[in-house]
Amino acid sequence: MTTAKTGISAIKAPRAKKSAPDVHMVNLALQGGGAHGAFTWGVIDRLLDEPDIEFEGLSGTSAGAVNAVVLAYGLMEGGRIGGQAALEDFWRKSSRGGSIWSPVSVVPKGVIPGMEMLTAATYAAFDTMTRTFSPYEFNPFDVNPLRDLLTESVDFAAMQERCETKLFLSATNVRSGRVRVFETREVNVDVVMASACLPFLFKAVEIDGEHYWDGGYVGNPALFPFFYNCESRDVMIVHINPMERDEVPKTAPDILNRINEISFNSSLIDELRAINFVTHLIERNWLKDEYKDRMRHILVHSVRADDALRDLPVSSKFDVNWSFLTDLRDRGRLEADRWLEANRDSIGKKSTVNLESQYLGLPGPRQADGSQARS
């Protein structure tokens, strides 16, 4: 696969224009999660196979921001085929370049006996070091291979000028603790680096005098930009961080990982709670006439990775072995395929998730008057 700057232009083809009723416009909300972002790559890759599904807005954090930017650039240069090519090219480059810096072994499992134990030990040592020393101490030159990968894969200047896809990339303002959402015309390599800046590994990224960390702490990803800037009511959330786990973690790495999963999902749950509240106001006709035009009935869909990624240890978020990344891609494609088979006819018509039971932990459905339904 050729690079995005040369290969995509070589396959540039006009996007087939359809009449509005034939196209389902969807907003994608892409979570972060290191190498597990290859699962999201697979989901997007499968959705791009569908000629009647297009993306109006892309909201992303960390690895989700990376996927969003690469996708938007690919779509701009070569339509849906260009989007697929750009994503594959980026993840292939990530495997080649990232293997040098990965804290876990990239030798395929089963090739060397005991490799799994060595990988766990290597990651444990790496994790201990990052809890003991700050990146200002062990990485004073702020070496991050992601920057080079992005500049090789995306022409940010061209994207700022010509990109039609609406981008919303989240980063955490270190000083204020609030989310900063960067939109298409603001997006450059520093913005993506800020959205993906893990504070234990890299120095905070400075933009216009403010410093930023990974956006997952306050928006993983942010949904509210869709409500104010996009016409489509459909929001599809592509999850990487499991919402639920069956077992209580017992080891220190597993406990810390679960804490991160919970905290990285908390801002998303808050936004879904707000959507659920507004949905009740609209569906139960609780709004006064003068306020009805101010509220939007958002349709929520999700492709969740709870089952697909359940067997993976936290260290695998740093595994950039090509066979592992393509396995994640294939898992993502499969989950997207299952979603399409069950729910594609609902796009533009109704939500395909029950926010109360699946995200908010409320027991059972409710009746039209808001009271708890009896089973």
Spell out the blueprint of helices and strands.
Blueprint (H helix, E strand, L loop, with lengths): L3 H7 L13 E7 L6 H11 L5 E8 L2 H36 L16 H18 L2 H4 L6 H9 L2 H7 L3 E8 L5 E5 L5 H7 L9 E3 L2 E5 L9 H6 L4 E5 L13 H32 L15 E5 L18 H22 L11 H4 L17
Parallel strand pairs: 1-2, 1-7, 2-3, 7-8
Antiparallel strand pairs: 3-4, 3-6, 5-6
Principal-axes shape call: globular
Query: Helix- and strand-based class?
Result: alpha/beta
What order do the SSEs take from the amino end to the carboxyl end, as H and E? Answer: HEHEHHHHHEEHEEHEHEHH
End-to-end distance? 55 Å
| Helical content band | 40-55%
- Radius of gyration, in angstroms, nearest whole number: 21 Å
Q: Work out the strand percent.
A: 5-15%
Please count the helical segments.
12
Stretches where pLDDT is under 50 for at least 5 consecutive residues are 1-19, 106-115, 365-375
What is the number of E strands?
8
Return the average pLDDT rounded to an integer: 85
Largest sheet: 8 strands, mixed
Description:
The protein is of the alpha/beta class and 375 residues long. The chain is built from twelve helices and eight strands. The protein has helices spanning 4-10, 37-47, 63-98, 115-132, 135-138, 145-153, 156-162, 189-195, 224-229, 252-283, 322-343, 355-358, and strands at residues 24-30, 53-60, 166-173, 179-183, 205-207, 210-214, 234-238, 299-303. Strands 1, 2, 3, 4, 5, 6, 7 and 8 form an eight-stranded mixed sheet that branches. A hairpin with a 2-residue loop joins strand 5 (205-207) and strand 6 (210-214). Helix 1 (4-10) packs across helix 3 (63-98) and helix 3 (63-98) crosses helix 6.
